[in-house]
Amino acid sequence: MTQHTAAAHHAEAAFHHGRAAEYHREAGHHYLLGKDYAHAAHQALAAHGHGLLAVRNATAAGKFYAGYEAAQLLPPEAVPAPKTALTIAELHEAAALQHEEAGRHHREAMKHEAAEAAAKEAQIAHRHARQAIFHGDEAAMIHIEHYGKAGPAAELV
C-alpha cells in the first residue's frame, strides 16, 4: 500500500474540488437554459461525488495535523454563512465557487512547511467544502420538489 503525505491528500482534494466546480457549473447552465434537467441532475450527482472524494482526501490530510485543535486555529466567522433563497442555477454557481475556494486553500496548505499553517488552510478548505455541499443539497431538494415529480426529463413551462 502506498504511503501518502498530507500534500498528496491536499492535491487530490484540490483536484476533486475543481472537478466538482466544473460539474456544478454545467448543471447550473442547464437550469439557466430551462431544459435538459435529466442531464443537469446527472451533472449535479457527479459534482456531489467529486465533493465527497475531496472531503475524504481532506480528512486523510487532516490526520497529519492531529495535534492542532480546530477551535484554536480559526474563528467561525472566517468563512461567511451560506446563502439561502437562491435559484437552482444560483445554488450550483455558489457551490462551484465554494469548491474553487476549497481547492485554493488545499493548494495553499500544500505550500506550508509549518503544520499549524497547513492545518489552518485545511480548516478553511473544509468550511468551504461544507458550504459547497450545502448548496448542492439545496439544489437537489429544489430539483426534486419541482421536477422530480414529473419525471427525469421534465421541462420548465
Mind explaining what this structure looks like?
The protein has 157 residues and is mostly helical. Helix content is 73%, strand content 0%. α1 (6-33) packs antiparallel against α2, α1 (6-33) runs antiparallel to α4 and α4 packs antiparallel against α5 (115-146). It is elongated and about 50 Å long. Residues 152-157 have low confidence and may be disordered.
Based on the model shown, name its key terms.
157 residues, mainly alpha, 5 helices, disordered C terminus
Query: What would you call the structural class?
Result: mainly alpha
Overall average pLDDT: 85
Oligomerization state of this entry? single chain
Sheet with the most strands, sense and barrel status: none
Low-confidence stretches: 152-157
Number of domains: 1
How many DSSP-defined strands? 0
Strand content: under 5%
Question: Could you estimate the helical fraction of the residues in percent?
Answer: over 70%
Cα separation of the termini: 54 Å
Choose one word for the global shape: elongated
Rg for CA atoms? 17 Å
**Helix and strand element order:** HHHHH
Q: Number of DSSP helices?
A: 5
Give a summary of the structure in a few sentences.
This protein has helices at residues 6-33, 37-62, 70-73, 88-111, 115-146. With 157 residues, it is an all-alpha fold. The protein has one domain (6-63, 82-150).
Task: Give the topology.
Layout: H1 6-33, H2 37-62, H3 70-73, H4 88-111, H5 115-146
Helix pairs in contact: 1-2, 1-4, 2-5, 4-5
